[in-house]
Amino acid sequence: IPYWDDLDMRTTVTTGGGIFSEVTGSAPNRVWKLEWRARPFVSGQAVGAPSTNFAVYLNEGTENFSYVYAATGAGAALDGAAATVGVQATNAGTNFTQFSSNTASLSAGLRLNAARAPGVCNAGSGVCAPTCSLDINGDGGVNASDDALLLLRYLLGLRGSALVANITLGAARPNAGAVESFIGAGGAYDVFRRPALSPSATRDALVLLRLMLSVPDTELLNSISVPSTAVQATAAAIRRNVNARCGTSY
């Protein structure tokens, strides 16, 4: 709720009013920007330029978002004096975080940054799919020669110095122990999404390596035996699922 108030975007009232959107940046760090241009509702007012202009920025691959204000109302509604600003889980109830309500707390140039709490998975009779980061060496990027090779070695049982030999490690995971802790049981890297998550080097790690190398769907599963319990059993389905869970765009 970046600016909850009676806003008027009709062409007979607001010149250039409306709701606009654009995507900036490049995957996997794009930002979806939703912008409102409006005027506070006043019965019978003449046409004029927007006096209320704000946007919501949603960041790809993260729970972070921002409210950005360029113009914050006029008259009795100046600086959000008649608006409510915050975040609410549903359209009713007490699960919300409020920034302000009916107070002049906004100003042009203000940016409010926040993050949504991570979701909680209730597995029920199935399994919860872990979210996945393919930046295994912790350097802020993803590439086959470091990240895929680390996962391949780990799933083959290599540990310690053998795991990280000739691999460039980033500040987030500066040693073998940090890499091992990050991969853990490896369930996030089960590309077939077996009911009992159990990734292997010769199946899952190999598929991820091929994805990083831009191998097309027609060759992605060549010489790989798809598990009989696979939920994602085709190349296209695996690619979509990896992209959705790992924030990639293969």
Task: Label this structure with key terms.
two-stranded antiparallel ribbon; alpha+beta; six-stranded antiparallel beta sheet; 250 residues
Describe the model.
The chain has 250 residues and is α+β, with helices and mostly antiparallel strands. Helix content is 21%, strand content 21%. The chain is built from 6 helices and 8 strands, in the order ββββββββαααααα. It has helices at 144-155, 161-164, 176-183, 201-212, 217-220, 235-246; strands spanning 7-8, 18-24, 31-40, 52-59, 64-72, 84-88, 96-101, 111-115. The strands form 2 sheets. Strands 1, 2, 3, 4, 5 and 8 form a 6-stranded antiparallel β-sheet that branches. It has a two-stranded antiparallel sheet with strand order 6-7. A hairpin with a 6-residue loop joins β2 (18-24) and β3. α1 packs antiparallel against α4 (201-212). 24% of the residues are buried. The mean pLDDT is 91.
Low-confidence sequence ranges: none
Shape annotation: elongated
The N- to C-terminal Cα distance equals 33 Å
- On the 0 to 100 scale, the average pLDDT is 91
Summarize the SSE layout with pairings.
Layout: E1 7-8, E2 18-24, E3 31-40, E4 52-59, E5 64-72, E6 84-88, E7 96-101, E8 111-115, H1 144-155, H2 161-164, H3 176-183, H4 201-212, H5 217-220, H6 235-246
Antiparallel strand pairs: 1-3, 2-3, 3-4, 4-5, 5-8, 6-7
Helix pairs in contact: 1-4
